[in-house]
Amino acid sequence: MVRRSRLIGGERYAAAREWEYNHLGVRTAAWQDPRRGGWYVEWIGEHVSKPCRDLIHTDGGVGTDINGSSPYLPLAPSVPHLIESHALADSVAAWRPWPVGGPIAEAVALLDGLVDVPEASWGSSRWRLSDGVAVMDEDTWDPQDPGRRTLVWSRDEAGHRQVREALDASHR
Which of 80, 71, 39, 33 is nearest to 56 (CA)? Predict the structure, then answer.
């Protein structure tokens, strides 16, 4: 189970989704990848209604095919990276989320004490943590808003104060 929490338009949105890291047994579909070499193998991942398949490549990468027939879209370099990223998302779900977008991305650059979490990060997603603040930068899939999105959470008064001070400093 992975819980996620975000503040959008001043309202907190929380969701819980079940993940299962399993193949489909004898019904597992597999096919060769003519561009990258190797094979794609279908597997059970997130239990939500969706038109795409969860895929794992023989190079270890995790991805999807978006609509069941489009090209492979990489999501994470490995299942362990995906699991670690989801574990962090779940661990900060009860923390205070900060509004997405706006000055948050610039203000986060001013935060001291954030440490990269390489086991949960990769080219399109980067986690940084301190005792009271968590930050995830991720590429968006939204064609209307391409680029990076920065999500920020804080816990306890020290974390809240650190984010508020960074936001204040970015407005000066």
Answer: 39
CA distance 87 to 134: 13
d(CA 76, CA 66): 15
- Cα separation, 6 vs 152, in Å, equals 8
159 vs 54: CA distance, rounded Å: 36
Please list the pLDDT of the chain residue by residue as tens digits (172 residues).
666 777 777 777 777 767 665 565 556 677 777 777 777 777 666 656 666 777 888 888 888 876 666 667 788 898 889 888 988 988 898 899 887 666 677 788 778 899 999 999 998 889 999 999 999 988 876 667 677 788 899 999 999 999 988 888 877 6
The whole model's pTM is what?
Answer: 0.74
Q: Which residues contact 40 (CB under 8 A, 6 or more apart)?
A: 30, 31, 32, 33, 55, 56, 57, 58, 63, 72
